[in-house]
Write a structure and sequence with these properties.
160 residues, mainly alpha, Leucine-rich Repeat Variant, 2 domains, 9 helices
Length: 160
């Protein structure tokens, strides 16, 4: 009979839990790839995001680079389900480069403006391309946030 110390047992439990968690992300990711319809893919992506793990977010960021626009759209849905703006740069870059899902991403930024407002303001300030800056103005102005007026007033004041 093998005798294990309490710290060894705890370590084995933690390792087992992490292995199972990683398997869950892998299963959901594979399910997205195998699903037929966009709505089904997006529903599974939301489940993946619901795990709230770093691995889940990485799987969704990986999916954002997939060759299928339906898979990329599902990734967008999942990434916007996270309560932080860490996916902002990847989503923004994809919005500017992917005409198949650009409006879907813009709608996501608009509907999650409280999460992404700071990111978008910083991006606006850093950008020099007029078209890209106008896209941010459009996203922020479509939101019904109270911050919109201050943002637009700031732009007008800076232009004068």
């Amino acid at each position: 009979m093998i005798k294990l110390s309490v710290p060894s047992i705890i370590l084995l439990i933690i390792i087992s839990m992490n292995a199972v968690a990683g398997q869950k992300e892998d299963r959901l990711y594979d399910s997205i790839l195998k699903a037929t319809f966009t709505s089904e893919k997006s529903k599974i992506a939301a489940q993946l995001a619901g795990l709230g793990t770093k691995d889940a977010k990485e799987k969704l960021l990986q999916l954002l680079e997939n060759s299928s626009s339906w898979n990329r759209e599902a990734a967008v849905n999942g990434l916007f389900a996270f309560p932080d703006d860490n996916a902002g740069p990847a989503l923004f870059d994809r919005m500017l480069s992917d005409h198949m899902i650009d409006s879907y991403i813009a709608e996501g930024f608009t509907s999650h403006i409280d999460t992404y407002y700071g990111f978008l303001i910083n991006k606006y300030t850093a950008l020099t391309d007029r078209k890209d800056r106008e896209r941010i103005i459009e996203i922020i102005s479509k939101s019904k946030s109270r911050k919109v007026d201050a943002f637009l007033k700031g732009i007008i004041e800076n232009d004068n």
